[in-house]
Structures are given as structure tokens and as C-alpha cells.
Amino acid sequence: MLQVALGIDIGGTNTDFAFVDRQGHFLAEESISTVGFPEPDVYVATLMDKIKLVKEQFSEPLEVVGIGIGAPMGNINKGTIEYPADLPWKGIIPLADLVSKHTSLPILVTNDANAAAVGEMVYGNAKGMKNFVVITLGTGLGSGIVVDGKLVYGQDGFAGEIGHTIVRPGRTNRECGCGRMGCLETYVSATGLKRTLFKIMADSIEGSELRDISFNEMTALHIAEAAERGDVLAIRAFDQTGEMLGLKLADVVAHINPEAIFLFGGLTLAKGLILEPTIRSFEENLLFVYRGKVKLMASGLNSKNSAVLGASALAWEKYEKYNDGDGALTGIE
In terms of domains, do 283 and 317 share one? Predict the structure, then answer.
């Protein structure tokens, strides 16, 4: 029987999952929509039914050693999701308890960006690195921080919420799903890019192929494709987004002095449109002592979901630790 870990990444739009072997190969993968479920227990039941269906359709029997879950505001200490800004449920969601109603397997819940950082360390470009940051750019902005080879969780398990640092304070700035104003992710994320574009279009009379698309229909892909075709306002939206991100990442370097910062997520699929202005702003705003020393690059796992990989790696680590293994898969305590 083939041993696998189940990795799950709960995003603001979709939830991805995969059965992952010890070498990080996706043996079967699928997704469901995260939205459309008014109650988290209904969502979890639907997700577990889909996972069971995929497992049953696999060509050979699978032995699942554990479940790792990455989610916005996931708390590894409690197995909860707490006050997520980018999910349809509010308050504290006892995710591990809800999942445990459907399985007796061990369950780990962590921040989705922390899971992505583990995936980058074990399977991506951060192999061998002890100090690095992963920034996830999706519906929101997440961050996973590794210092001296260990994930930074902080006192309550919520360290590293760079997306919810305030970049433009004041009541007149953008409202965030967390309830505050001016958070970074309201400017730098797929949603933030869209908000920036609509602000640019409102302030300009210049033509754009995007003017006939409503806000609810607009996606980051629309903006990227228009920018590739030379749409000036779309390019300006990416430039402003990258400028904001690079500025904030320069501050991150001053705090933890990482070897590298990796960008992962749907927004990074725009490649040079987001990377070039981000790198330019990053280098311009770095303290002189750091210039030329910190790599800023796309994730080495953009062909896969690094949060799924990282969540599965944590499940593997827990399994090995309690089954006479050395538990040294990630080197993260």
C-alpha cells in the first residue's frame, strides 16, 4: 500500500488538496470552491466528501499518514482559523475539530503562508537556506518567515502577518477584510490590484480595454492580459502594486535580514509585470548595508501549490516523529 500525506490549502477563492508522497510528488489532486458555504461545517463536510471520492478513484490503495492544512490565520497551536479576513466565515473556526468528525487521522492546521514556506524549504528554491521569507499573493497577501531554520510562529501562533501591516493609515484609506484601514493586502494582492486599477480608471480619462468590465467580473488575469497587450492603465496598476510591495519588503529585510524573499501565488503568474517594479522598488528602498545581498525572486514551486506541499510536509514530519523516525524532514521545530 502506498503511503501518502494529504495536503490542503484553503484559499479565499478555492481550496486545493493533493495526496503527496514522501518525495513531494502529487499523486492525485483536486479542488473545490471555498465560497458558497454559509457555515464552515458544511464546507468541511463537502471538502472531506470530495477528498474521499478522489482517494477511492485512485488506481491503487493509499495509506494516508496524516493531514496538513494551510489556511489564512491558521493557528498551529490550537488547530483553529481565527478571524480570517479573506474567508467567508468570521470569528474562530475550530477547523481541526470539524475535520476530526470525518477522520481519525492526525491533523495539523497552520497559516497558509507558513505552509508555503515549508514547501519552499523542502521542495523549492529555499533548500539549504536558514533565513528567508515567502510572500503569497492571492486573494490576500500572506507571509511565512523562517529565521535560523525555524518557522516564526510567535507567542500565539500568529507571527508574520505582513499583509496586515498598515501602509496607509487613516479613515479615508482602503478598508480591509480584517476590519482596519490601509492594510498592505488591500493594495498588494489580486483583489488589491483590481482596486488599484479601478482607482486609476476613475482618476483618468485615458482609454482602456478594461473600462467595459464591471468590478465583480474583473480579475487579475484580465488586467495581466491587458497589460501584456500594452494597455497603459493596466501597466500602471501593476507598477503601483509592485512599488508598494517592494517598499514593504525592504522594511521586512531591515527586521530579519533574510537571504532571500520568494513570491508565490496567482499574482506572480504575471511574471515581469509584477516582478520588475517590485524588484526596482525593493532595491531603491533597501538600507545600503543590505543592497545586493538579498535575493528577491519567484517561488521555485510555481508549477505546484507550495502551501499544499508544505502542509503535506508537516504531516509527514509529524508521522515520522511518532513512528520511530527522526522527524527531521523540514528542520523546523
Answer: no
Q: In which domain, by residue range, is 73 found?
A: 2-118+303-321
CA distances from 171 to 188, 203, 305 (A): 19, 20, 36
Residues 287 and 224 in one domain: yes
Tell me, yes or no, whether 140 and 241 share the same domain: yes
Residue 255, classified by CB atoms within 10 Å of its CB into exposed (0-12), middle (13-18) or buried (19+), is exposed
Is residue 326 situated within a structural domain?
A: no
Q: What is the pTM of this model?
A: 0.85
Do 163 and 63 share a domain, yes or no?
Answer: no
Please check whether residue 79 lies inside any domain of the structure: yes
The amino acid at residue 51 is I
Specify whether 293 is located in the same domain as 312. no
Tens-place pLDDT, residues 276-316: 999 999 999 999 999 999 999 988 876 567 789 889 988 98
> For residue 158, what pLDDT is reported?
86
